[in-house]
Amino acid sequence: MAGLLTQSGLLQAAQTLRTGIAEVQTLAHVESNGQGFLDDGRVTIRFEPHIFHARTAGRYDANYPLLSYPDWNPKIPKSTTHSYQLFNQACTLNATAAVLASSWGMFQVMGFNFASCGCNNLKQFVSLMEKSEDSQLALTVTYLRTTGLDDELREHRWEDLARLYNGKQYKRNQYDTKLASAYAYFSRL
Prior knowledge:
Elements: H1 7-17, H2 21-32, E1 45-47, H3 49-55, H4 80-100, E2 102-104, E3 109-110, H5 122-131, H6 133-147, H7 150-154, H8 158-166, H9 175-188
Antiparallel strand pairs: 1-2, 2-3
């Protein structure tokens, strides 16, 4: 299995973001239950059919209705295994769109944010996501700083962070309340 998140990685991220380790752990917990890799060593992903639809102008909607559709459905994919099934199928149709339409690693950064993570291309982004959880965290730190979301995390503005990080449907999955609850837990440790 690839390298797990280290204490030094957490400390470096907290210092760079000018926040505490609890805030970093909060984001990891809510986004992926703190797991950047599956037991078999593959990076944790979530394939998003509505993003694949957007990235392919809906051209696969009719023939692949579970793989591509216009509106977000929180019930699909059903699991990480299902995500990989959809992702692999989408790769056969349009590999670039499949990577862009998936969230990656412990912090579930969308592939279409690769440049905001400091990557020159998708290949570099995926390679670094597959390297280690510390590498996933470093990409996420760059993403948070590049997009200005470090302030929301640092200031515990959970609703703003959830809306900007997870999208306008964040309330349907209660991302804001999950962030607040997770922070309450991790800040006590």
